[in-house]
Design brief:
The structure is a single chain. The protein has 274 residues and is mainly α. The protein has one domain. Helices cover 77% and strands 0% of the residues. It is built from twelve helices and no strands. The chain is globular, with a radius of gyration of 18 Å. 53% of the residues are buried.
Length: 274
């Protein structure tokens, strides 16, 4: 379990880094969110081609692989759309409906064991998310996109656990990348920006961080049940807040810090349970 925790912490730092690069592209350099999403999958596919096991091709006959890829495809597109107008921390906080949904889906459909204490901790962690987002009547369109992304992501997390035994994490990662790149290909090509040095560098950075983060997450799901890993995904918010502060000057207020403390405490406590 400790190795899975270490892997997931690294993964949860890389994914917000990729999304922060994507936010700079969409909010400051006028690049389309759909292009950012497609380029992530396309470049990630190119990165992994030399390392893909030969048996990977057999995965594409499994309908679950296609559904799983469609979920991450929808999630990445929605979160890039949300980041175009919203702060990184707020987007990730709304996005964290995903781990809660994954916890419930894994218990219902995968029959993974749950306990009252672990269920309480994940709800406490989600309370921390609410302290950061503070949803009200005037929820912005950007946060609605983030909630949609979180819903896609929660299904994706559960399916990652469901499929973790049918192939290596590398093969699963490649399948989601190449399928998603194909699904978004027409839209990505239609939104192709005029490339400059900064746009090219940020596009590659966004793709590399996202690909590595999701690959490591798959390794973590191979080592531990989804019901134990799901709360750890909340640590993405810690990285998101730090990057939002460093890159965009979005300094968290007191309630945000309180929410982060609640999320961190719930996540650590959950990893200590057997």
């Amino acid at each position: 379990m400790q190795r899975a925790v270490l892997i997931i912490l690294v993964a949860m730092s890389l994914i917000p880094a990729g999304d922060s690069a994507g936010k700079i592209l969409t909010s400051q350099l006028a690049v389309s969110p759909v292009f950012v999403a497609w380029s992530r999958f396309a470049i990630g596919t190119l990165f992994l081609i030399p390392f893909v096991p030969p048996q990977t091709r057999t995965l594409f006959g499994n309908w679950r692989i296609w559904v799983r890829a469609a979920m991450i495809c929808g999630g990445i597109t929605c979160i890039q759309t949300a980041l175009q107008t919203e702060d990184v921390a707020n987007v990730f906080a709304a996005f964290f409906i995903g781990p809660l949904l994954s916890y419930v889906l894994a218990a219902v459909f995968l029959r993974e064991p749950i306990t009252l204490l672990r269920s309480t901790l994940i709800l406490v962690g989600f309370t921390g998310v609410l302290l950061v987002v503070r949803p009200g009547i005037g929820v912005s369109t950007g946060l609605l996109w983030a909630l949609a992304a979180g819903t896609f992501y929660g299904i994706f997390l559960t399916m990652s656990r469901w499929l973790s035994d049918i192939a290596s994490p590398l093969a699963l990662s490649f399948s989601q990348l190449i399928i998603s790149a194909g699904l978004l290909l027409p839209f990505g090509l239609m939104q192709m920006p005029a490339f400059t040095g900064p746009i090219a560098a940020l596009t590659v950075t966004s793709a590399a961080c996202s690909m590595l983060g999701n690959l490591l997450m798959l390794y973590a799901y191979r080592l531990a049940p989804a019901t134990k890993i799901a709360p750890m995904v909340y640590f993405q918010l810690m990285s998101a807040v730090a990057l939002g502060w460093l890159l965009f000057g979005a300094l968290p207020d007191l309630l945000t810090w309180l929410g982060l403390a609640v999320i961190l405490g719930a996540g650590i406590a959950s990893t200590r349970l057997r």
